[in-house]
């Protein structure tokens, strides 16, 4: 084994695989738990578009996904360029636009397929995690040649794909709402139902990380209290 | 022109010519709307990234069909994208990827410390 290949066979590399998969599951669960089916129910209507319905009906991976996602990405870039983007997008780099569109349209498609019973409820979060994993590797591949290979530089280059969950939802919500104006009434009713299912499943999946977070906060608070009272006792 | 009108122009152009290359349709609509050069470059880069994402999803799906787990696929793909790098760089890239996601989790929770550190 050459020295250069040693790392990829190491325990540390295997541990990275577990850590990344775990982090992606936590992130996707926290984000999906914040989705609200009622909040995306469409206001206003357009004539249903075949290209949107074909996107929803097609398998989760395929060329139909690609075409619609490209149209939405172009729409965001054009609207941003003209100053008419109706939602606040702090980072409108190509990485951010591609991430937001890929994430939002995957969410709406998974929701539709879950509402139709094509994806079992218990597989919804895993499906979204798989898409997040593919997105992560794609962005890494795209940025890696132009940046220095240090932990912080790589982490900063990828940060745009993992904004705080509340911001991620704020960005995907208007896209989801708009999609709902482009589908037939039955589909318009089904998608929020699927979103609610995904959100419920994600809340279950996010429970351990939320409990751990509360535990750490309590420990930090006790540590601060001990420090204060210890100091007072010493006076 | 509003965002909805821009989206309608793009979607209707594609709806009318689904057999056409979507990127040509986008370029045509963008030109009609008078998009700046910066915007055209941004669109091109975004579409390239979406292609890359699509390719990785297809690769992950193929791995699943062969009975591989998502974790194994992540490791194989990371090994691929870091090929030719030193072990030190590979370790930094792997840690940087995990850190980016971890930071997203922490910011979502409003925490200061990593959740997977032993408290």
SSE run of chain B: HHHHH
Give the overall shape of chain B, derived from the CA principal axes. Answer: elongated
Helix-strand category of chain A: mainly alpha
Residue share in helices of chain B?
over 70%
Shape of chain A: globular
User: Could you report the average pLDDT of chain A, rounded to the nearest whole number?
Assistant: 89
- Following the backbone from N to C, one meets helices and strands of chain A in this order, namely HHHHHHHHH
Distance between the termini of chain B: 53 Å
Short description, anyone?
In chain A, 73% of the residues lie in helices and 0% in strands.
How would you characterize the overall build of this protein?
The complex is a heterodimer of chains A (about 240) and B (about 120). Chain A has about 240 residues and is mainly alpha-helical. Chain A is about 75% helix and about 0% strand. Chain A has helices spanning about 10-35, 35-40, 50-55, 65-80, 95-115, 125-145, 150-160, 165-180, 185-235. The longest helix of chain A is centred in the C-terminal third of the chain and has 50 residues, at about 185-235. The N and C termini of chain A lie far apart (about 60 Å). The model of chain A has no long low-confidence stretch (mean pLDDT about 90). The radius of gyration of chain B is 20 Å and the shape is elongated. Chain B contains 5 helices and no strands. With about 120 residues, chain B is mainly alpha-helical. Helices cover about 75% and strands about 0% of the residues of chain B. The chains are: A mainly alpha (about 240), B mainly alpha (about 120).
Question: Which properties best describe this structure?
Answer:
heterodimer; A: 235 residues; mainly alpha; 9 helices; globular; B: 119 residues; 5 helices; 0% strand; disordered C terminus
């Amino acid at each position: 084994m050459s020295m250069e290949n040693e790392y990829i066979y190491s325990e540390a590399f295997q541990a990275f695989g577990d850590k990344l998969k775990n982090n992606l599951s936590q992130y996707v669960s926290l984000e999906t738990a914040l989705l609200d089916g009622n909040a995306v129910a469409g206001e206003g209507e357009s004539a249903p578009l075949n290209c949107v319905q074909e996107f929803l009906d097609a398998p989760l991976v395929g060329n139909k996904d690609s075409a619609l996602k490209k149209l939405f990405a172009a729409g965001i870039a054009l609207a941003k360029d003209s100053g008419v983007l109706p939602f606040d997008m702090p980072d409108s780099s190509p990485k951010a636009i591609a991430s937001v569109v890929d994430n939002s349209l995957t969410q709406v498609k998974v929701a539709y397929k879950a509402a139709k019973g094509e994806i079992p409820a218990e597989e919804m979060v895993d499906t979204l995690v798989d898409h997040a994993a593919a997105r992560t590797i794609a962005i890494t591949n795209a940025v890696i040649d132009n940046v220095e290979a240090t932990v912080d530089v790589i982490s900063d280059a990828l940060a745009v794909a993992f904004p705080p969950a509340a911001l991620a939802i704020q960005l995907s919500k208007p896209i989801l709402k708009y999609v709902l104006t482009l589908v037939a009434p039955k589909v318009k009713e089904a998608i929020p139902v699927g979103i609610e299912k995904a959100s419920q499943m994600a809340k279950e999946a996010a429970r351990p990380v939320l409990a751990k977070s509360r535990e750490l906060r309590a420990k930090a608070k006790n540590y601060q209290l001990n420090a204060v009272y210890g100091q007072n006792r010493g006076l | 022109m509003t965002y909805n009108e821009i989206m309608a122009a793009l979607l209707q152009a594609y709806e009318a010519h689904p057999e056409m290359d979507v990127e040509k349709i986008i370029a045509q609509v963008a030109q009609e709307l008078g998009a700046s050069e910066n915007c055209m470059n941004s669109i091109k880069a975004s579409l390239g990234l979406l292609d890359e994402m699509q390719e990785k999803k297809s690769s992950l799906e193929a791995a699943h069909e062969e009975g591989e787990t998502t974790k194994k696929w992540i490791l194989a793909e990371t090994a691929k994208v870091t090929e030719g790098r030193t072990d030190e760089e590979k370790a930094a890239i792997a840690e940087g990827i995990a850190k980016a996601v971890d930071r997203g989790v922490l910011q979502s929770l409003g925490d200061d410390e990593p959740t997977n550190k032993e408290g």
